[in-house]
Amino acid sequence: MADNVLAAYWEMPAVARTLVTATVVLSGTCLARILSLGLFIHHPFYLWQFPPQIWRLVTCFFLSDHPISLLMDSYFLYRYCVSMEMGNPRFPRKVDLVWYILFICGTILMIDYVLGLTSFMFLNGLIIAMVYTVTQEQRGMKTQYFVLTIPSQMLPYCMILVALLMAPGKAVVEVEGLVAAHLFNFLTRIWPEFGDGPRLLRTPAWLESLVPTPRVAQRGYGTAVRPGNAPTGRTTGASTGPLPDSWKTRGPGHRLG
């Protein structure tokens, strides 16, 4: 039984598994009072002191303040992260999803700092950003939110409305996540495709070197194989086709006439 559970755990998509595990472990230890929540929340005071407590820039995205909230947050985080990692054509590589998460988190922190809101935890903002990004690919489809059937693209707004009624502070963070996700969508899709402009936000090369892309990857619709860098006629001076090998090479040129 334990072996089956462990095997199922390691078969989960890598990014979703990492995010959910970090959320459950960090939030669980804080809710159980093993560690203090104050050690991991975000606050500019701790970032500007010396030495700066820079881990707070990361840990504030893995915190939930109530057991029921932790259960719901973990569910939505896993569900929509898997949807992006396994079946979303906008993120064909794992590194593209990692770059998306880094951009969303950085933008949320920047918005919160510029507006002087001083929010402590940003997990809900990250979840709303993922929900928005996934549902943008599901226009015309329906989804279930509790007992309601609504258009898929309306789901993030319904979630923000519920948060506004139950916990206004979380609703503010969710709006920050929505703005960050829309900015990412604008820079990577709307402006290049519909504004006839350059793609202003690309996955950086330094991140590609840190997050390798396997040649064989499991997708929601099957197995994807990334082709290797095979030499082409443009680089070798030869081309494929029915001609003999002696005709495929390039010899010295001669002026005609």
Q: Can you describe what's shown?
A:
This protein has one domain: Rhomboid-like fold (Up-down Bundle). Helix content is 56%, strand content 6%. It has twelve helices and four strands. It has helices spanning 2-11, 14-31, 44-48, 56-59, 67-87, 94-114, 123-135, 155-166, 168-194, 205-210, 233-236, 245-248, and strands at residues 142-145, 148-151, 216-219, 222-225. The strands form two sheets. Strands 1-2 form a two-stranded antiparallel sheet. It is globular and about 50 Å long.
The separation of the N and C termini measures 83 Å
Return the structural class.
mainly alpha
Uncertain segments are 227-248
Approximate helicity band: 55-70%
Name the CATH homologous superfamily. Answer: Rhomboid-like
The first-level CATH class is given as Mainly Alpha
CATH topology: Rhomboid-like fold
* Number of discrete domains: 1
From the alpha carbons, calculate the radius of gyration and give it in angstroms.
23 Å
CATH architecture: Up-down Bundle
Can you count the helices?
A: 12
- Largest sheet report: 2 strands, antiparallel
- Strand order, sheet with most strands: 1-2
What portion of residues belong to β-strands? 5-15%
List keywords for this structure.
6% strand; two-stranded antiparallel ribbon; Rhomboid-like_sf; Rhomboid-like fold; Derlin; globular; endoplasmic reticulum; mainly alpha
